[in-house]
Structure formats: C-alpha cells, structure tokens
Specification:
5-stranded mixed beta sheet, single chain, Transcriptional regulator
C-alpha cells in the first residue's frame, strides 16, 4: 500500500513564484533525498508518502503554502496498491493513483480543500468528517499560525520556549499562534487517523 497526494495551488497566479520555492523545500523536508514527487501543469503536483504519514504531510504542505498569502492548496489523498511504478509519478498506475485522482476531483463539488479515498468506504466517511472539521481552522491559518505550525512540525521534540527562541518570538505569541491554529487537536486527529488506518490494514 502506498499513499499518493495530488494537489494544486489555489491563487498561484495572484502571487509570485515564492510558493514554488516553498513547495520544493517542503518536499525535501517530507521526503529527504527521495525524489518521489512531481510538479506539472505549472501549479499542480503529486508526491508519494507512507499511508500513515498522509495527514501530517498534507498539514505540513498546507502550512508551507499558506506562508504565501493569499495562496492556498487543494489536495486529494489516495491510498491503495501500485501496479506499475515508473520513474515519473504521473506515468505510474494503480489504485493509489486512481483514488488520489477521485479524491482530488471531488473537492470542487464538495467545496472543500482536502479529501481522502481508499478501498474502505466506512474509513473514508469517518476520516473525511474529521478532515472537514480540521479544515475549519486550517483554511483560516494566517501567516503567523502557518509559520508556527510549520516550525512545530519540523521540530516535534522541542518545547514552545525553544520554538520561541528559533522563531524570534515570545513564548506567549508562539503558544497563542498554535492554539489559534488548533495544532494540538490536529495532532490528535493524526494519531486517531494512524490508529484507524492500522486497524483496517491489520484485518
């Protein structure tokens, strides 16, 4: 099983190409030296991650893109098998790619910026409800909230006082930004997602 995330940048024409630099930097943080990502049609992209990392990955990408106000990002998460794994992601095939495309294509009609599709409808229904709730604060992240979420996700073991030192902000402003971003609830959602994913794949 693999996870394919298909996305595009909302409002890319209204901003400079800073989003592209941020997106490529985000891929490097997420994937390291692994080059399983592709940018195509100017502002669309795909990347492959481990299924358990899907929620953390889309949250991190969202924070990185939100630093380029007023840009945002739409993403479809697809989980499934891969049939042919070619050098270019866009030329690979399998359920993961099909599901990612279906999830992405459903976004406009559902009027949301994020959705998931697997071979397990009940799982999808539950997680998509959680995603819709999570998007309420995520879609409203301002520059400071996005910056602090990005920093917190990159430095998961650091205390807020240490994040404050790195960012040059006060501890109270870091705490307030993460609270406003509903960061702790997002991490709880990620934990629940991993638990439920493990349950369906261990059957």
């Amino acid at each position: 099983m693999i996870c394919i995330i298909t996305g595009d940048i909302v409002g890319s024409r209204k901003i400079k190409d800073s989003w592209l630099t941020n997106l490529k930097a985000a891929f490097k943080v997420i994937l390291g030296q692994n080059n399983k990502w592709e940018i195509y049609r100017g502002d669309s992209f795909q990347l492959e991650v481990e299924p358990e990392n899907a929620i953390r990955t889309v949250a991190y990408l969202k924070a990185c893109i939100k630093l380029n106000k007023p840009a945002d990002v739409r993403m479809g998460i697809g989980i499934g098998e891969v049939k042919s794994n070619r050098k270019k992601l866009s030329e690979s095939t399998g359920d993961a790619f099909v599901n990612s495309g279906i999830a992405f294509d459903s976004l406009k009609q559902a009027k949301v910026n994020l959705a998931i599709k697997t071979e397990f409808p009940e799982f999808d229904e539950e997680i998509n409800v959680l995603i819709k709730l999570a998007l309420i604060p995520m879609d409203s992240w301002g520059l400071v909230a996005a910056e602090m979420v990005k920093l917190a996700m990159e430095n998961g073991n650091l205390l807020q006082s240490e994040l404050a030192t790195i960012s040059g902000r006060t501890q109270s402003s870091v705490s307030e930004a993460l609270k406003r971003a509903h960061y702790s609830e997002l991490m709880e959602m990620d934990k629940l997602y991993r638990k439920k994913l493990n349950q369906i794949f261990s059957k």
